[in-house]
Amino acid sequence: MSTVKDLIDQAVDRLGDDLEKLSLQIHDNPELGYQEVKAAGWLTEFLHAQGLKVERGVGGVETAFRAMIETGAGPTIGLMCEYDALPQIGHACGHNAIATAGAGAGAALAAVRDKLPKGRIVVIGTPAEEGGGGKVKLIKAGVFRDVDAAMMCHGWDKWILHQDLLGIVRVAFEFTGKAAHAAADPWEGVNALDAVIQTFNNVAMLRQQVRPNARIHGIVTNGGAAPNIIPEAASCLFYVRAADLEYMWQLHARVIACAEGAAKATGTALKVVDYRETAYEPMKRNEALLEAFGANLRAVGEVDSPEVKDRLGSSDVGNVSQVIPCIQPLMKIAPDGTPIHSRDFEAAAATPLARRGTLTAAKVMARTTYDLLADPALLARAKQEFSKAK
Ligand SMILES: [Zn+2]
Ligand SMILES: [Zn+2]
């Protein structure tokens, strides 16, 4: 006789072609954070067709959504989808696969609805992970308030149950100087680009004195209009990351000081653009949820690799992990050694290997959700661990 988990696996396999189509559609139509209108549309259409109750624009965010299965009074388990792309390099973070895995898990659970223990499953569409802090907004709007535990799978080149995430805060600097002809009257100008370059030099020096699990990196967002005009306006954007939030805020202050020093040295005016409202927090580990996920992963025949300590990113799923028990295992959707945010990863996110990883992730998340509904002791352990951990 088939168990519920067998039926979950069969439902995902049955939906495999539809899920792959959904994934490729999102992949081939990359949309930036908060502009994911098509992706949110396709995902909610799919979930609605699978029998989930869909709400669009939740938490006051137009491209966010919630799709629900309700079987009675019980715990609520969240399955998160991301679907924003990167500027210029499209789905090089594989969020099309994240979205499809979450939607696939929701659809598989809807297919076994009659056999589910009492409770609620919510597939939550979380926009703008790449810097926009969609989950931060949804947390503030109360979307996670009634969720007892949540999970999502992120694409990677290996199956890994847990990777630490760094806290991250963005900060932008806008320098204003004075335009003048760069050859005829350079002494009349005040060079805003010099202030940007000096900021980078200051940060480069700061960087050699920081702890190994901190990262500071930036780009020039405006470098002037033409070489024969002393730039009157120039700007740059930095990301400041650290494993420890207190240390991250210390570095944030020092990076601002780097820009202030550059403004002073060049005689430009500085405006600091503050993004501290959408700072991302580190990932709080939850062993109880990771163990349940890992057991289901091995049961469907996958092998996971050990955590890699120096490949450190950041995500607003870290913020979710600070308010409820939450995990973000990594699913293999690319050949070993493929770095994320690369052209190669973008190409990999639309291959049969990505289909395989995505469908497996859908099965494993659906199975783990089933475990959480069926075994109150498991959810209790996850919650107890959450409240004890720092
Ligand atoms: Zn990314
Ligand atoms: Zn990502």
Can you list the ligands bound to this structure? zinc ion
The percentage helix is 40-55%
Please state the structural category. Answer: alpha/beta
Profile the largest sheet: 6 strands, mixed
Number of helices: 12
SSE string: HHHEEEHEHEEEHEEHEHHEEHHH
Q: If strands are numbered along the chain, what order do they take across the biggest sheet?
A: 1-2-4-3-5-11
Compute the gyration radius: what is it? 23 Å
Total strands: the figure is 12
* Multimerization state: single chain
Unreliable residue stretches: none
- Mean residue pLDDT: 97
What amount of the residues lies in strands?
15-25%
Shape: elongated
Cα distance spanning the termini: 44 Å
Structural description of this entry:
This protein is α/β, with parallel strands linked by helices. It has twelve helices and twelve strands. It has a six-stranded mixed sheet. Strands 8-9-7-10 form a four-stranded antiparallel sheet, with helices on one face. Helix 4 links the parallel strand 3 and strand 4. The protein starts with a helix and ends with a helix. The site of one zinc ion (ZN) has 4 residues, from loops.
What topology does this entry show?
Layout: H1 4-14, H2 16-28, H3 37-49, E1 53-56, E2 65-70, E3 76-81, H4 95-111, E4 120-125, H5 134-140, E5 149-151, E6 154-156, E7 167-176, H6 192-207, E8 214-222, E9 233-242, H7 245-266, E10 269-274, H8 287-299, H9 317-323, E11 326-327, E12 330-332, H10 343-348, H11 352-374, H12 376-388
Parallel strand pairs: 3-4, 3-5, 5-11, 6-12
Antiparallel strand pairs: 1-2, 2-4, 7-9, 7-10, 8-9
Helix pairs in contact: 1-4, 1-11, 2-4, 4-11, 6-7, 8-11, 8-12, 11-12
The structure holds zinc ion (2 copies).
One zinc ion is lined by residues 93, 130, 341.
